[in-house]
Amino acid sequence: MTLPVALTISGYDPTGGSGVNADLKTFQNLNVYGMSAITNLTAQNSQGIQEILNIPDDFLEKQLKSIFEDSIPFTMKSGMITSIYMIETITKYVKNYHIPFVVDPYIFSREGERILSQEATAILTKELLHHAAVVTPNLKEAEALTGIDIQSEKDIDTAAKIFLREIGVKAVIINDSNITGKACDYLFTKNNSLTLTEEIVDTKNKRGSGSTFSAVITAEIAKGNSLENAFKKAKRYVTLGLQNSLDIGKKDGPINHFIDIE
């Protein structure tokens, strides 16, 4: 028996709601074999992130070397990255192995604390993003990566042009739930655009929604599906995951990763 294989490069969440944990659950639920390389160990729960421990500088390289020397994944994605060294290491593997790469830029915590420094964000923008098949920022991340203030759908179009023309990404999906009062995701490529809109789900349990969204796209591309179809499935998957979210923990619980969508 063979399965499509997807690799996630991100941080470890001990309560299972986000990061590598969310990615692997999503991969498995979509019948994709998941691999993982850990960038950070975190002490976090439904109430927030208490501490982040970066792995030793050379250990991410050792993990990726072990993976790629043994079995090259069909696709890969990155999430929590917290140092320039991590960015440089991932860039090397992306350049050496021509497989679809999804970047879920994790720049701020859900409490708004900056996780990736401005210097590292500039390196991410300059060195890594243009190798991605698609980048999936929320509004605040899109502002940090493009340097513009996004207050309208016109600003989202402007940000997309910066991603595509100046940064050089192949495609970008910008997530917004503030400007229009609905849950909107905007896909832009060099040739076209597509907007998907749902009503905002009234739940406090949203942890891992960004990780899950990009994980669905990664898994679907690993299965040979187009970016547009992967985008549609990710939007539906996360909407259902929020509608059936889990009341685990004292504050903000996780999205439900085990949605029956096949």
TrEMBL record:
Transmembrane segments: none annotated. Keywords: ATP-binding, Kinase, Nucleotide-binding, Thiamine biosynthesis, Transferase. CDD domains: HMPP_kinase. It holds the Pfam family Phos_pyr_kin. Its EC number is 2.7.1.49, 2.7.4.7. Pathway: Cofactor biosynthesis; thiamine diphosphate biosynthesis; 4-amino-2-methyl-5-diphosphomethylpyrimidine from 5-amino-1-(5-phospho-D-ribosyl)imidazole: step 2/3; Cofactor biosynthesis; thiamine diphosphate biosynthesis; 4-amino-2-methyl-5-diphosphomethylpyrimidine from 5-amino-1-(5-phospho-D-ribosyl)imidazole: step 3/3. It catalyses: 4-amino-2-methyl-5-(phosphooxymethyl)pyrimidine + ATP = 4-amino-2-methyl-5-(diphosphooxymethyl)pyrimidine + ADP; 4-amino-5-hydroxymethyl-2-methylpyrimidine + ATP = 4-amino-2-methyl-5-(phosphooxymethyl)pyrimidine + ADP + H(+). InterPro entries: HMP/HMP-P_kinase_dom (IPR004399), PM/HMP-P_kinase-1 (IPR013749), Ribokinase-like (IPR029056). GO terms for molecular function: ATP binding; hydroxymethylpyrimidine kinase activity; phosphomethylpyrimidine kinase activity. One of its GO terms (cellular component) is cytosol. GO terms for biological process: thiamine biosynthetic process. Belongs to the ThiD family. This is Hydroxymethylpyrimidine/phosphomethylpyrimidine kinase.
